[in-house]
Amino acid sequence: MHYTGRQLAERPEECASVLETLYIYMGTTRDLYRHPVSRFKGNLPELANHETIDEMFAYFAEVDEDGTEWAKCCEQLFKYFSALTGHKLTKMADVRRAIVEESLQDKVST
Questions:
Q1: Which of 65, 72, 86, 96 is 20 to 30 A from 79 via CA?
Q2: DSSP codes of every residue in 50-107
Q3: For residue 97, what are the contacts with CB-CB under 8 A and spacing of at least 6?
Q4: CA atoms of 107 and 13, how far apart (whole Å)
Q5: What are the residue boundaries of the structural domains of the chain, listed by start?
Q6: CA gap 62, 57 in Å, rounded
């Protein structure tokens, strides 16, 4: 959050990119409990036989049988990204709407 906040303070025009990244990371439900880096680099042969944060997430998925804790995580992420981007984000539809708003602002300012 620190680095994203710093990035947006220095380059507010990158807000749409930040929102798009959030959408990619949270937009798929088939891999709820995967670290964002693992979504893109998880199959690298260099990572074979190494412990990863995904093992912790796998345990989290086992103990969070009803999804209550995952919902709390999402709520907190939306809260953080709302503060960072200035958009009210409470669900994925809000993220999509914010991406569109940012894209429209980019077109108007160019």
A1: 65
A2: ---HHHHHHHHHHH-TTSHHHHHHHHHHHHHHHHHHSS--SSHHHHHHHHHHHHHHHH
A3: 87
A4: 11
A5: 2-32+66-109
A6: 9
Q: Name the nearest CA neighbour of 87 among 73, 101, 75, 74.
A: 101
CB-based contact 34:101 (threshold 8 Å): no
Tell me which DSSP letter residue 20 carries: H
How many CA atoms are closer than 13 Å to the CA of 68, on its beta-carbon side?
Answer: 4
* Whole-number Å distance between alpha carbons of 89 and 102: 14
> What does pTM read for this prediction?
0.71
CA angle 25, 62, 32 (to 5 degrees): 10
Residue range 33-74, pLDDT digits in tens = 566 666 666 667 776 776 666 677 777 777 888 888 888 888
CB of 16 closer than 8 Å to CB of 102: yes
